[in-house]
Inverse folding.
């Protein structure tokens, strides 16, 4: 598995959602690789956030604080920054929030994606776009088999439906406007990752942040769905896949990679909510207590979800490198360092470097 440093050095990259958890980690990694990073996003989604704590703003060449609903502002940002590649991460990312605000979720995740693709049509600099969706885009029938990229899309809740719709919108733009015969030979791919975890996530209604808040406050954690099985992975795992995929999209054979991709953990990364909470509590130590009695909620929750990432293994050479235990260990190290007032920009970069050194061949290569 390789990431080629020279592919990214001085390359102009636009990240939508750079103020979010995943966007912050991607920004830090791309800056480490030497890219010129432009951000387009709303304000950070939580009061405590990776963007501020890890000083992500210092890594940016430019940034625009605006809504993706503002198509003209988005076009202007693209014209000024002239990115060669867009990583589209901006979204409303929470299932339970989508029940509280379904129309906002649909607007953000469907129209926002359409605006990114539409704005790209006016650009002569963009060569590739990666649209980040989710493992929840599949029509989940609670089957034990892992879902492949060719399985049917669906969505029980507004969040899942919005992301499945974003996949369809992307496919329609790819077929209609971004193909080999068009005036815009941009390569467009979508990526579907598992439940990502990592330092700097303070979102509500997510297992790991909820646990860490409770541990710090010396309160027990009550689990909503302790027996639900999810594909858990450290945030650096799918981000490595996105970077590798981007390099392929930018290459001379990029058209064959313009499609949907799964980036999930291997079978050892599939675990129940209660198993993850208990492993996290063990690594946190004192004052970490889990209550396994489920909390009743009227909202639908998927019991079983697994991803098949064979395509990424065979065609990209990507595979997960950190075990679930290692991922949880890194989360605890990050947050305990933050509680000790450490330099979190340095801690974040150190974990990226550790992942690269242990997992990746980071080699120079001529730009495609």
């Amino acid at each position: 598995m390789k990431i080629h440093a020279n592919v990214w050095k001085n390359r102009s990259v636009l990240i939508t959602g750079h103020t979010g958890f995943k966007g912050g980690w991607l920004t830090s990694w791309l800056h480490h690789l030497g890219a010129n990073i432009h951000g387009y996003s709303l304000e950070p989604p939580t009061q405590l956030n990776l963007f501020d704590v890890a000083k992500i703003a210092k890594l940016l060449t430019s940034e625009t604080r605006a809504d993706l609903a503002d198509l003209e502002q988005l076009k202007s940002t693209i014209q000024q920054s002239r990115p060669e590649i867009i990583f589209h991460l901006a979204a409303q990312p929470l299932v339970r929030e989508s029940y509280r605000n379904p129309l906002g979720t649909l607007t953000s995740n469907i129209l926002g994606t359409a605006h990114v693709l539409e704005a790209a049509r006016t650009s002569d600099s963009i060569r590739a776009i990666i649209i980040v969706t989710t493992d929840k885009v599949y029509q989940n029938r609670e089957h034990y088999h892992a879902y492949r990229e060719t399985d049917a899309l669906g969505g029980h809740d507004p969040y899942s439906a919005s992301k499945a719709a974003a996949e369809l919108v992307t496919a329609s733009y790819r077929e209609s406007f971004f193909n080999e015969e068009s005036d815009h030979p941009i390569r467009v791919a979508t990526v579907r990752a598992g439940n990502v975890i990592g330092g700097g996530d303070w979102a509500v209604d997510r297992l790991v942040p909820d646990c860490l808040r409770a541990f710090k406050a010396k309160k027990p954690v009550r689990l909503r769905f302790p027996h639900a099985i999810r594909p858990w992975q450290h945030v650096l795992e799918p981000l490595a896949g996105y970077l590798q995929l981007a390099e392929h999209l930018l290459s001379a054979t990029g058209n064959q990679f313009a499609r949907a991709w799964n980036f999930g953990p291997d079978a050892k990364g599939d675990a129940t909510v209660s198993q993850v909470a208990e492993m996290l509590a063990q690594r946190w130590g004192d004052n970490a207590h889990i209550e396994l009695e489920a909390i009743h909620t009227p909202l639908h929750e998927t019991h079983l979800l697994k991803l098949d990432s064979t395509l990424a293994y065979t065609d990209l050479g990507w595979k997960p490198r950190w075990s679930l235990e290692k991922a949880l260990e890194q989360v605890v190290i990050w947050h305990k360092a933050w509680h000790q007032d450490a330099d979190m920009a340095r801690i974040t970069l150190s974990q990226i470097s550790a992942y690269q050194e242990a997992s990746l061949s980071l080699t120079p290569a001529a730009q495609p």
Q: What stands out?
A: Residues 26 and 239 are 7 Å apart (CA to CA). DSSP finds 13 helices and 14 strands in the chain. The two ends are 18 Å apart (CA to CA).
